[in-house]
Amino acid sequence: MIAWQNVSSNTWLNEDIPMGAKQNMTQNLDRRSMLAITAASLLATTSEGSDRELPKFTGPMVGHVSDVDANIWFRPDEPGEYSLHILKADGSEDRVITATAKIENDNCLTWHVSGMHSGSQYGYKISGSNGVLVSGEKYYFETAPDPAKASKVCLAFGSCAANKPLELWSQMEQRGSQALVLLGDTPYIDSTDLSVARQRHREFLQVPQLASLISHTPTWGTWDDHDFGRNDSDGRLKGKENTRQAFVEYRANKGFGHDRSGIYTKFQYGPVEVFLLDTRWFARTETSPVDTKQPTLLGRKQWEWLKEALLASTAPFKLITCGMIWDDKENSESDDWGTYSYERDALYEFIGQNKISGVVLIGGDIHCSRHLKYDTEKSVGYPIHQFIVSPIHDSTIPKLNVPHPNLVRGEAVPHVWLRLEVDSTQSPARLHAEWVQMKGRPMWDVTLTADELSFG
C-alpha cells in the first residue's frame, strides 16, 4: 500500500443497495453498550493529538475464543509470575492459571483457558506479586456459540488504523460487535527492527477506546505490508523474522502459520468461519503450487492448509480474509491478488469442483471501501462477493477507487469499519454486511442468503 494521502472522497456507483434494518445481535448488548458509552464518555476529553500518560501495563486483550476455550493476553512492565483468575457468575474463583513473563518475549503473556461452556460469559482478573493488577466488571469474555446449533452473531472488521484515540472502536461495541478482526496495517510499523515493531504494537493496543474494547471482545488479526515491515513488501523482505516475532508476541490467535513461518490462522464463531490468510510472508519465495512458471502468493503449505480447511468447514458462511484486495489495484504496486490471479482463479476452481458453499472474500489495504460481485457462476457455481473495508484512520486514496465491471459500490471515506451479522436461526441462513462510518455518514449494506451462495 502506498503512503497515506489526505485527499477528498470519490464515488463509483453501479447499483443502489437499500440500507438494511439494524438489529441488536447479542443478549448482552445492553451491558456491552453501556460499557462502551461509559468508556467513550470518560475519553471524550482526550483529543487525538494530546499527550497521555501510558499505563504501567498493556492489555489485557481477549484473543481467540471457541465454544470451549479462550486465550487471554497481557503485557506487564516487569518480568515475573502473573496469575489469571477465572471468575464464576457469583464472583468466586473458578480456577487460577499462572504464567511467567519473560524479557525475551518482551514480557508478553497468553493464558490458554480450556474446558469452558459454549455461549457462556466468564469474568476474570489478573494478579502479580504485588497483588491484583486488573479487575472490574469490564473484564470478562464470552465463549463462542455451539457451532452445531443455530445462532446469531455480529463481528467487526477493519484495516489501516493509526495509534491514536478514536471513537470508532467504541462505536463497534455500541453497535453490538461480539468479535473483532483486524485485517492489517494495524498498526503501521514500517520497520523490521524488533524494538520498533514491539513499540508500535504496544502503542496500538494502548489506544484507550481500543484497549477498552479488546478487554472483553475476542480479537484476531493478520497483517498487511506496513505491519509486515515495508510498503508493498513481500516474502523476500530482510528482517521479516523480527516483525513476525513481534506479531506473535502481541496477538493471541489460535495459531500462527507453520514451523515459525507465516501467521495464517482460522476460527469459527457460531455460523461463520473466518480464514485469515498471510499474503506477505510467502509471497515470491517459491514457485506457485498452481503454476510452476509463476511466483507464489500463499506458498505451498498455506495453499494446502486453506484447501483442507475449506473442505472441513461446516459453517454456513466461510469468510476468506486478508490484508490485500482480491483484484488489481491498477497502480504501480504489485501487492494485490490481481498480480497473482492464477492462484485466485485456482481457488475459485477448487471451490467449484468441491461444491464449497457460502464463500465470501474480505480485503482492506487501499484506503477505500468497496463491494464487488464477480461473475464466477461458471467456475464456482455462484457469484463470489468481495467486501473491501478501509481505512479506520482518516487518510483516503480516491484514485484507488477505480472503475470495475463487477463493482457494485465503492467510495473513499475515512473512519470506516465493516459490521457483519450472521444469522442461522433463519432459513435460509443470512449474512448482512454493513459498511459503517464513524460520524454517521450514510454508506451501504448488502444481505446474502446461504441459498444465494450455493449450488442450486
UniProtKB/TrEMBL annotation:
<feature type="domain" description="PhoD-like phosphatase metallophosphatase">
    <location>
        <begin position="193"/>
        <end position="402"/>
    </location>
</feature>
<dbReference type="InterPro" id="IPR038607">
    <property type="entry name" value="PhoD-like_sf"/>
</dbReference>
<dbReference type="Pfam" id="PF09423">
    <property type="entry name" value="PhoD"/>
</dbReference>
<dbReference type="InterPro" id="IPR029052">
    <property type="entry name" value="Metallo-depent_PP-like"/>
</dbReference>
<dbReference type="InterPro" id="IPR018946">
    <property type="entry name" value="PhoD-like_MPP"/>
</dbReference>
<protein>
    <recommendedName>
        <fullName>PhoD-like phosphatase metallophosphatase domain-containing protein</fullName>
    </recommendedName>
</protein>
